Amino acid sequence: MTRVLMVVSAADTLVLADGSEHPTGFWAEEVAASHETLAGAGVEIDIATPGGRRPTVDALSLSEQGGVQAEDAERFRAYLATLEEQLDHPLVLADADPSAYDAVYIPGGHAPMTDLVEDPALAAILTATDSAGRPVVALCHGVAGLLAATGEGGWLFGGRRMTGFTDTEEQQGGYGDSIPFSVEQRMRAAGGVVETGEPWSDTVVVDGTLITGQNPQSSVSTAKALLERLA
Fold it and tell me: Where is the DJ-1/PfpI domain (predicted)?
């Protein structure tokens, strides 16, 4: 059976540019829709977090304040409830064996900007997965996790085509310049060839085994792109 390691941030606080703290977590649609799409195709999915801590869903991702319609929020909430056991007891990221998985999948929400962006365990998993020619997938702010794989030789994904949550979407989404850093600009500065679609468009970029989605609206398409690659 095909197995995917879904790496979810366990951070529940985002330190903004002015030093203040803001509640955060994973974005409901990105975990729920991605997981449902993959599982529906028969993929076995393990969820891992730094330290094996229970991840927190960002309350905004289940509210109209976060741009999520009530019926969609209820659907995501219901699906996450089916993952309660996995979310309550995720794998310890540092203990995950990358050779046991056919791909790594990193959903977003702003939380990865806190605990995944420099996580050494994630860096090791990404390096092993990419060097073995297996897919690495990141969605929205989950691309911040890709930045963990940066060392003396530069960024593992430098020179590759990719997308992620854009500066325009950040401005329109309410955080604006208060975010700790721009994921779009960090990817560009690190050597990524960043390609962006229209704000909030369903946009996926595939560069060999690197698959990236721009925003929550790209969740299903990103998961489907991984299924196509695995097939």
Answer: 88-228
Nearest to 228 by CA among 29, 37, 12: 37
49 and 9 in contact (C-beta within 8 Å)?
yes
* CA nearest neighbour of 1 among 45, 35, 44: 44
Q: What CA–CA distance (Å, rounded) separates 82 from 68? A: 20
Q: Answer positive or negative: Cα dihedral of 212, 214, 220, 221.
A: negative
Question: How high does pLDDT run on average in the chain?
Answer: 96
> Which pTM value belongs to this model?
0.97
User: What backbone torsions phi and psi does residue 12 show, to the nearest 5 degrees?
Assistant: -120, 5
Is pLDDT at 175 greater than 90 in this prediction? no
- For 91, residues 6+ apart whose C-beta sits below 8 A from its C-beta are 46, 47, 48, 49, 52
Whether residue 145 contacts residue 138, with contact meaning beta carbons closer than 8 Å, is answered with yes
- pLDDT score, position 90: 98
Q: In this predicted model, what pLDDT tens digit does every residue of 134-161 receive, in sequence order?
A: 999 999 999 999 999 998 889 999 999 9
For residue 29, the number of C-alpha atoms closer than 13 Å in the C-beta half-sphere is 24
Domains assigned to the chain:
3-230 (3.40.50.880)
